[in-house]
Amino acid sequence: MIPKTPSRAGLNPASEAELGALIAERFAARQPLRLAGGGTRVETGHLPGDTLSTAAISGVVTYEPGEMTLIARAGTPVDQIEAMLAAEGQALAFEPADMRGVLGQGGTPTIGGVVAANASGPRRMLAGACRDHLLGLRFVDGQGRVLKNGGRVMKNVTGLDLGKLFCGAHGTLGVLTEVALKTLPHLPDRCTLGLHGVTVEEAVAIFSAALATPFEVSGAAFRDGTAWLRVEGLGPQMDYRRDRLLALLAPRETELLDAEATLALWRGLRDLAHFAGLDAPLWRVLVKPSDAPATVRALQALGGEASLDWGGGLVWYCGPGSAQAVRQVAPHATLLRRGGLTGPAFPPEAPAVARLSAGLRQRFDPAGILNPGLMDQ
Amino acid sequence: MPQPDAGILARAPQIVAALREVLPEDAVIWDPEETRAYECDALTAYRCPPLAVVLPRTTEEVAAAMRICHEMRVPVVPRGAGTSLAGGALPTADSVIIATLRLREVLEINTANRFIRVQTGVTNLSVSAELEPQGFFYAPDPSSQLACTIAGNIAMNSGGAHCLKYGVTTNNLMGATVVLPTGEVVELGGPEMGPTGLDLMGLLCGSEGQLGIVTEATLRILPRPEGARPVLIGFDGAEVAGECVARIIRSGVLPVAIEYMDDVCLRAVEAFAHAGYPDCAAVLIVEVEGSPAEIDHQIARIREIAGALNPVEFRESRNADEAMAIWKGRKSAFGAMGRLGDYICLDGTVPVGQLPYTLKMIGELSRQHGLEVANVFHAGDGNMHPLILFNANKPGDLERAEAFGNDILRLCVDVGGCLTGEHGVGIEKRDLMGKQYDGPDLEIQMAVKDVFDPRWLLNPAKVFPLDASRPWREEAATR
Questions:
Q1: CATH number of this structure's domain B341-431
Q2: Which domain holds residue A324?
Q3: Which residues of A touch B207 (CB under 8 A)?
């Protein structure tokens, strides 16, 4: 069981300057902080220190649909941004998930949390991850310095690209205060092809065939014996792509879901609705798609259930397997929902890589006060 | 560039001997006749032959050379094909060039998992050529793609004409085998859609040889589209052409490319390539992809959008020949400009909405500096390539052109853009970095380099202004 959380302060700086001053204080005192945007994405209950949230550093700074550019403060709620983009026919193409259901947490997901977690849903295999859409950032480092990198334009190779480091660093290099993201047109028409009663091996074969076509399949997920393919397009594009894919899959029987059912299905797949409300540990495993079937079989042998996303490149495993057993099958597994497991959530890095990562953490957070113990081991 | 280290120059024979001890006979070049071929890259105004050149064939040989240089404290300049327009591969007299040219093997083509793994000395174009039989391609397509290597593409995070839809190198790089300055070899990323820890590969891509040398790469590959067709739209003003770009993007049509040429460029191109372009203030070439019906639909949308802005011409290509005719002028633009004289090619990016204002201001700067400028660029993403014309034989003209160029780049930053969209900082924009980044923003980048390259031996005197990097270099010399 996770030990009861001791009482701790909740810190909610309202501005970047306030945040900088606060972290400078903690740096001087060597006092650790647990970082959160809306606190919906990562379990940090086991980490030491007061909780610091950026939720109050909120608001869209600028949104230019004709430039496909959005700049927002880190605490801006994701649903506010998604509604704003949708009104212009655009979206965050990397489709970040809402993890509240699966982690059993309240709170409001923030755009800073999305970036810090590099949160990327089903469309990641086609459109890239969050890290591929981040144009620039502002952050406060572990000494309280306010820094920036990148900018707001789509092509920028001026200096080192620190944004890549911050996507998926979970705040351990610095606390995000503002992010600039590329937005993309949201293709208006969509449908889903469902193939029922298939094995995991068949599912990955179907995915590989579909993803070798130029029809820009934007979702390829498998769970509970069904392989799902999402097709999107503009005007006649969607009909054409759907028909060509149906022809490719023939003579298999294919269920066709309309636009509305497609939205609901992929929201569920994205948010792992099928693993919500459970207590068992939940693991995220990145594999070569062709390795997915063997990985799934080996994980299921430990008990529990597995599902696939990203055309087989992402395996989700929810089950009672021990950390050691899971990592034996899947060395790159990340523990997303502890479900009573202790020990590191992130997989170990090769020694030389670990040394570089530790060196970087030391430069960005010399006192080791930003989510210590979350990613470093 | 800083003065070469006399101590290193004096030790040249020992350094070469040490390299020869661990590398094949033909992999170390020391003869001044031969090293002269490496004295510059495509920024030819700056030249300096290196102390020696190493041409390894394997990751192990790169590592062996790096280890020697690290131990003997010799600067290393990584080099791909030497097509950098920013001086990214310019040597110093006391440096050893490690070139990736002989790392030419294609290691694995895996269409089921949608990647290709190559040694990084392969050329950009040859990667797509390898994939053609399987119906796949590699998306980044810098205009030097016939010559430039994947190693250089990764170092500079190269783009190309089609990145509006497919992104640049960093968006298509999945894994890298990297030789660190110590000679240690690390694997970053791989065929999985990672990473699980810090994205060191993302950091490395575009780091201009400051952090390590990439010897092998896993690249994302994509199925070839069924077809592609361009349209040509002529406008009588830059402003309205810029507006057209913004409206197309807003409409939800996402072209693979939107290219822009101004009147100076159009006239040069006409005289050179006879592409049949209209004589007007600005031309857009917009390319869309898909099946014939999809293309028709998208072009109809573009016609509607452009039509509302009164173009002087809207030319649709109906077949491959007409498509080629539309691209002919754009593809020969740089050659055509070369006939007008010497030029320097800039690379700033501005927010798309700032294009008309930026073009107007570039025109004013052109009058102030008394030098002609042509604009040809990737309009969809605001990545501008002003070409400043000058006469290299006229004393002072290069300096004037450079001063004009610096003014344009400052303008790019002032309107919310950046110094370089795809060519890199190199030495060309090194001293302008302070315009883009405040002191602490540069300090943290140099702290990152310091982690990877504690002796500051890799690609010296590039990217970071020398004044700013001096304390770091002095500290590094004590390690």
A1: 3.30.70.2740
A2: 273-337
A3: 160-161
The number of residues making up chain B comes to 479
* Alpha-carbon distance B173 to nearest alpha carbon in chain A (angstroms): 11
Q: What is the pLDDT of residues A64-74, one digit of tens each?
A: 998 999 999 99
CB within 8 Å: A286 and B383: no
Closest CA to B249 of B284, B296, B203: B284
- Mean per-residue pLDDT of chain A: 95
pTM of the model: 0.96
Chain B residues closer than 8 Å to A67 by CB: 246, 249, 351-353, 382
Tell me the shortest Cα–Cα distance from A66 to chain B, in angstroms.
5
Q: Tell me the per-residue pLDDT of A342-361, one tens digit each, with 9 for 90 and over.
A: 999 999 999 999 999 999 99
Answer whether A144 touches B (CB < 8 Å). Answer: no
Kindly determine whether residue A184 and residue B196, on different chains, have CB atoms separated by under 8 Å: no
Q: Tell me how many degrees the CA angle B64-B66-B70 measures, rounded to the nearest 5.
A: 120
Task: Round to the nearest angstrom and report the end-to-end CA distance of chain B.
Answer: 23
**Total domains present in chain A:** 3
A136 and A36: one domain?
A: yes
What is this model's ipTM?
A: 0.96
- CATH assignment at residue A261: 3.30.70.2190
**Domain B228-334 adopts which CATH fold?**
Alpha-Beta Plaits (3.30.70)
Domain ranges of chain B: 6-99, 106-223, 228-334, 341-431, 437-477
Domain identity same for A298 and A252: no
Strand order through the sheet with B342-345: B313-316, B228-235, B282-289, B257-262, B373-378, B386-390, B342-345
Could you tell me where the DSSP H helices lie in B36-136? 59-71, 124-131
Interface residue A134 vs chain B (CB under 8 A): no
The yes-or-no verdict on residue A5 having pLDDT over 70 is: no
Regarding whether A153 and A31 lie in a shared domain, the answer is yes
Using CB atoms and an 8 Å cut-off, which of residues 42-61 of chain A contact chain B? Answer: none
pLDDT in tens, B145-159: 999 999 999 999 998
